[in-house]
């Protein structure tokens, strides 16, 4: 095994060899073989170094799990371009960098298992526009790869994991407070994942299963591995349709939409009432 952990802070800054070294020690203590790596998935060179280290020590690469992640939580109207870029570079570009370097070796051996750690936050979470975009981008990447690589015996799946890790424990309480003040409620699943302590090791057996030969018929899927259940998410599908012979007019759509395909759809984040002006002439 070639564990990689840059050892940086939750926001991606800094670096430390400690986390990777600790994991390697645990693997070796359990009787396994492991070599640490301290490069960053955010660069193509870093990914090349990781794959080279694995090939140099083990001779081949059968499995890739892309787990690296950082957070730069901020409302989009306060988000700096650098905060957007940093998150996408680790999560989405990082997935591409690793896949791009490992897949040629898997194709040669006509076998491989790729698991990309996405997140249910990709379905939408206030204050995480950068993170959600990167995570849902990983799902699209996974599904495209599954079709491209199936002829070579390579499966590609994404997981929605959960558990208390160095990254999730670093989510500031202020982010939750801001959402609450704006009347924006996170999906209940995310609330449980962040606030309830859980053992992240519960994800392990489920992820490992996706890397076995027994899971060779599973590809292009999104699997939830958080907590006790194991969940299969259905791909997006058309739920409602209205037809017309010819082009729609705006007047027709204004009449029909609310009573047909958008009927009953809830607004996940309704507008908050405008702030009330302070009363005039008030005395302290």
Short description:
By secondary structure, this protein is of the alpha/beta class. It has helices at residues 18-29, 44-58, 81-109, 129-149, 173-181, 188-195, 204-210, 250-256, and strands at 63-66, 112-117, 154-160, 222-224, 231-233.
Please explain how this structure is put together.
With 284 residues, this protein is of the alpha/beta class. It has one domain (18-233): NAD(P)-binding Rossmann-like Domain (Rossmann fold), CATH 3.40.50.720. It is 38% helix and 8% strand. It is built from 8 helices and 5 strands; from the N terminus they run ααβαβαβαααββα. The protein has a 5-stranded mixed sheet, with helices on one face. A hairpin with a 6-residue loop joins β4 (222-224) and β5. α2 packs parallel to α3 and α3 (81-109) runs parallel beside α4 (129-149). The radius of gyration is 22 Å and the shape is globular. Mean pLDDT is 87; it is low at 188-197.
């Amino acid at each position: 095994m070639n564990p990689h952990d840059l050892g940086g802070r939750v926001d991606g800054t800094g670096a430390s060899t400690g986390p990777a070294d600790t994991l390697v020690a645990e693997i070796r203590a359990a009787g396994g073989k492991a070599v640490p790596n301290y490069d960053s998935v955010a660069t193509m060179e870093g990914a090349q170094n990781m794959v080279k280290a694995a090939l140099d020590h083990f001779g081949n690469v059968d499995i890739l799990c892309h787990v690296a992640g950082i957070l730069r939580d901020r409302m989009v109207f306060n988000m700096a371009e650098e905060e957007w870029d940093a998150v996408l570079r680790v999560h989405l570009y990082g997935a591409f960098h690793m896949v791009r370097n490992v897949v040629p070796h898997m194709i040669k051996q006509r076998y491989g298992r790729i698991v990309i750690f996405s997140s249910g936050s990709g379905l939408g979470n206030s204050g995480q526009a950068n993170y959600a975009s990167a995570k849902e981008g990983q799902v699209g990447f996974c599904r495209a790869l599954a079709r491209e690589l199936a002829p070579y015996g390579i499966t590609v799946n994404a997981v929605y994991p959960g558990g208390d890790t160095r990254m999730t424990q670093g989510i500031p309480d202020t982010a939750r407070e801001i959402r609450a003040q704006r009347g924006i409620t996170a999906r209940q699943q995310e609330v449980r994942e962040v606030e309830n302590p859980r053992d992240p090791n519960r994800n392990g057996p489920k992820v490992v299963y996706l890397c076995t030969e027994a899971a060779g018929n599973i590809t292009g899927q999104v699997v939830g591995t958080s907590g006790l259940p194991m969940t299969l998410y259905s791909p997006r599908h058309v739920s409602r349709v209205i037809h017309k012979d010819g082009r729609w007019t705006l007047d027709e759509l204004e009449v029909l939409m609310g009573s047909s395909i958008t009927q009953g759809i809830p607004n996940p984040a309704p507008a908050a009432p405008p702030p009330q002006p302070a009363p005039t002439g008030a005395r302290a």
